[in-house]
Amino acid sequence: MKFTKSEYIIFLVAAVIIFVFATLFYFDFTSKSAVGQERVVGSITLKKRIAQRKYSSQVIWEDIERKEPVYNNDSIRTADSSQAVIRLTDGTEITVNENSMIVLSFATNEIDIQFRGGSITAARGDVGGEAVRQLNIRSGETTVSVAKSDVQVSGEQEKDISLTVNRGEAKIRSGEKEEKVKENQKVVVTKDSNQIKIYSLPLKPLSPLPDGMLVTPGNSLTVRFAWERLKPEQDGMIEVADNETFARVRVARKINGDSVSLNLPAGSYFWRLRAKNRNNGVVDMGDVRRFAIIRESPIHLVFPAPGQVFQYTNANPVINFKWTGSDMAQEYLLEISADPGMARTVRNIGTPDIQLAVDSLGEGVYYWRVVSVIRLSDQVYRSTSSNRRIDVSRKKIVIPPRPVFPPDGNTVRSAVLRDKGILFSWEKTGDIPVTRLTVSRYADFRGIVFSSTSNTNFLLVKRQLDPGVYYWRIAGMLSDNQLTEPSPAFRFSVTEAEHIKLLGPADRSEIVAEGTYGTVRFAWEKADLYGEYLVQISRSADFSQIYKDERVNTSYAVLSGFSPGTYFWRVILRKSDGSVLLQSRPNSLFIKDILAEPVILSPRNGASFEYDQLGEIDLTWKRLEDANLYRLRFYRIENNRAAFITERDIRRNAVDISDMNFLGEGKYLWSVQAFETSGDGAKVIRKSPVSKSYFVVTMNNAARKLKFITPKILYLE
User: Fold this and answer.
1) What are the Cα distances from residue 559, in Å, to 507, 520, 548, 569?
2) Domain parsing of the chain, residue ranges
3) Mean pLDDT of 561-582
4) Which helix or strand (DSSP H or E) is residue 676 part of?
5) How far apart are CA 609 and CA 157, in angstroms?
6) Contact present, 298 and 383 (Cβ < 8 Å)
7) Distance in angstroms (rounded) separating the CA atoms of residues 51 and 62
8) What is the chain's alpha carbon radius of gyration, rounded to the nearest angstrom?
9) β-strands 289-295, 212-216: how paired?
10) Does the pLDDT of residue 58 top 90, yes or no?
11) Which residues contact 641 (CB under 8 A, 6 or more apart)?
12) Are 617 and 693 in contact (CB under 8 A)?
């Protein structure tokens, strides 16, 4: 199938459109531009399990963590067994229970919460100030308005809405109807008829508060349940369950008075009151309240370790305090005291972080601990760690600096001193603000060449020093102008060795060039100076005529184009302006050509002879003048493949073929290669190409006819 030109254009345009919109979708998916466009209206003060947020201009939900800010027009939702508490900037606390969703919207004079389903609690009874903005909770055509009140709202956007006023009063409007709801009243708005039904709650629970959170350092907590006293003719009962339908009642107990204490493990619970009138049998049910017992992990101190000692000389030491964090704590208090009972407080510092640096502790013994602070509605929980001891002491003797570079016994070139200088470095403690460097020609420092100071741990000295041996040491200068003990002295030498050391090829070495023109690698010792290296090759020792030169920045150069002969080479280090910094002594080298290929004399290539003629045939080749070793290799050719048989090294240029006891009928390939070796034969100086030839061995009829001479009769014993 072939496409027309117009169809290709259509496909191309479609591909471009897909790419552009996919790119735009990706950036929209991953960007957070809405953060910078909306103002902060609150923050997450507590999160249990999964809570998510969606910015107003995005469609993607993302997890939100405790202490993160909440922005105007943000959507917040929770999952199963999850909960989030939002503290608005005016002090309002919104508790979003499991499987609930809201949208926050701050107008000029009012706060709107779009309720999309689930269950929420709005606590505004403690909001301060005279001009308190009205809070509106909207769900479809139903609006709940509160000023300084605590309310609970539950239901679904397309179903009935339930409102309970726990403190203060509220207004509820559905369609054209509006009602005022007082404290301890409950309202149900039916979706179909927009009918508002108000119920007075006959039983009034007091604590725990709706959606209350109780903190315990252990696995369980004794919870005090309180309510307004029942009527004399009523018999009451308290029920505590794991779910809102009370399908699984954990505790059901008759009550007397106005409170009862129950020990419950950490978890989420629902509780209610039930009372029966003994006279008429009427049963009153109280409103269902949710509360949670949250286990708070204890704080563990991390650093400093118990009994750790901090020493200083002049300035107080900087001590880093660190401890393990809490998932719920909004603040930590670092308490430092002069006694183990923590009665004589030295410092009390608050921080939202899990570490703090303190530099105000002078000499003495201190004890420290950390208090975590958890604020939930009108309650404050504090958890205190154990305490630890630390010692802060002032050092009597300051450790002197320790010399590092140049190391003891180092050698420095005069050219390096002129061009770069010499960098002295050392190690010192923070108690030493200034260091004095001293250089002398004598180990006892009776004669000072120069002395200088530095407020760092190094000093670059650029000055000319005469060749010879020098000694250097350092001493710390304290803030009171006192000197520490001097450090051990290090020795270094200044030399006038201005020559670059050549590494290879060695002087008077012989190198074999591959082919007509050879390649040679020249290497030298890298100098301590910056510059460009110039490699010069000459045919004469005085370098009057330069055969080849090369500029490099490395400590080697690979040059080619050498024909056999004698050469001289040297290396020059130059500055950017062309002036010479260093130069090597010249080395000579002799480049040899490879040995010529041996010329095979006999037998001729492809010769054939019978097996009984082997004693009359020699393998010979032309002798090469510089060769002192020849290597022969033999192969048997079968099915056009050469199988290696043996190898022999000989000194002469001929070999008797009858010595080859492996020969039989067949075709054979043999090769010869010439070598020039050192006197002891351990090193190969040159070698030639390999010369090859083949011959054929046949069997005549006499050789093929065998005559057995074994007797016809054999006797066995």
Assistant:
1) 17, 5, 9, 12
2) 1-30, 33-200, 205-295, 301-394, 402-495, 502-593, 600-703
3) 83
4) strand 666-677
5) 111
6) yes
7) 9
8) 50
9) parallel
10) no
11) none
12) no
Mean pLDDT throughout 92-111? 84
Q: What is the Cα–Cα distance from 399 to 81, expressed in whole angstroms?
A: 60
What mean pLDDT do residues 411-430 have? 81
pLDDT digits (tens, 9 = 90+) for 321-344: 999 887 778 889 999 999 998 899
Mean pLDDT to the nearest integer, 522-533: 82
Distance CA 105, CA 483 (A): 68
Which residues 6+ apart lie within 8 Å of 663 measured at CB?
Answer: 611, 614, 657, 697
pLDDT of residue 31: 53
DSSP H helices, 385-496, are: 414-419
Alpha-carbon dihedral sign for residues 491, 496, 499, 500: positive
Pair of tokens at residue 588: 């000579």
Cα-flanking dihedrals φ and ψ of residue 657, to 5°?
-70, -20
Look at residue 266 and give its three-state secondary structure. Answer: coil
Task: Identify whether 505 is preceded by a cis peptide bond (ω within 30 of 0).
Answer: yes
Containing H/E element for 404? strand 402-405
Examine residue 603 and say whether the peptide bond preceding it is cis (omega within 30 degrees of 0).
yes
- The encoded tokens of residue 541 equal 């020792």
DSSP letter at 615 equals G
Between strands 196-200 and 170-174, the pairing is unpaired
Q: What's the rounded Cα separation, in Å, for the pair 649 and 673?
A: 10
Exposure string over 384-411, b if 16+ CB within 10 A, otherwise e: ebebbebebeeeeebbbbebeebeeeee
Distance, in Å, from the CA atom of 53 to the CA atom of 102, rounded to the nearest integer, reads 10
180-185-187 Cα angle (round to 5): 70
Half-sphere exposure of 403 (CA within 13 A, CB side): 24
User: What are 222's two structure tokens?
Assistant: 């004794």
pLDDT of residue 627 exceeding 50? yes
Fold of 33-200: Jelly Rolls (2.60.120)
Instruction: Return the structure tokens found at 401.
Output: 């600096």
Place of tokens 């000694």: 471
DSSP string, 561-614: EEPSEEEEEEEEEE-TTS-EEEEPPPEEEEEEEPPPPPPEEESPTTEEEEGGGG
**Residue 149 · residue 125 · CB < 8 Å:** yes
Domain at 600-703: CATH architecture = Sandwich (2.60)
pTM above 0.90, yes or no: no
End-to-end distance of the chain based on CA atoms, in angstroms? 94
At 690, list the tokens: 């390999």
Q: Looking at the structure, give the CATH architecture of the domain made up of residues 205-295.
A: Sandwich (2.60)
Topology of domain 502-593, CATH: Immunoglobulin-like (2.60.40)
CA angle at residue 345 from 339 to 347, to 5 degrees?
A: 125
Q: Does residue 191 sit in helix, strand or coil?
A: coil
Q: What is the chain's mean pLDDT, rounded?
A: 83
How much of the chain, in percent, has pLDDT values that exceed 90? 11
Considering the domain 301-394 in this protein, what is its CATH number?
2.60.40.10
Question: At a CB cut-off of 8 Å and minimum separation 6, what does 625 contact?
Answer: none
Residues 349-394 pLDDT 10s:
998 888 999 988 888 999 999 998 887 766 788 888 899 999 998 8
Residue range 402-495 forms a domain whose CATH class is mainly beta
Domains 205-295 and 402-495 share a fold: yes
List, for residues 657-693, the tens digit of each pLDDT value.
776 767 778 888 989 999 988 777 777 878 888 999 9
Q: Answer for the pair 328, 46: CB distance below 8 angstroms, yes or no.
A: yes
Q: Is the pLDDT of residue 144 over 50?
A: yes
Contact (Cβ atoms closer than 8 angstroms) between residue 585 and residue 572: no
Amino acid present at 717:
E
Residue 196 DSSP code:
E
Which residues are within 8 A (CB) of 4 and not within 5 positions of it... i.e. 6 or more apart? none
CA distance 79 to 390: 46
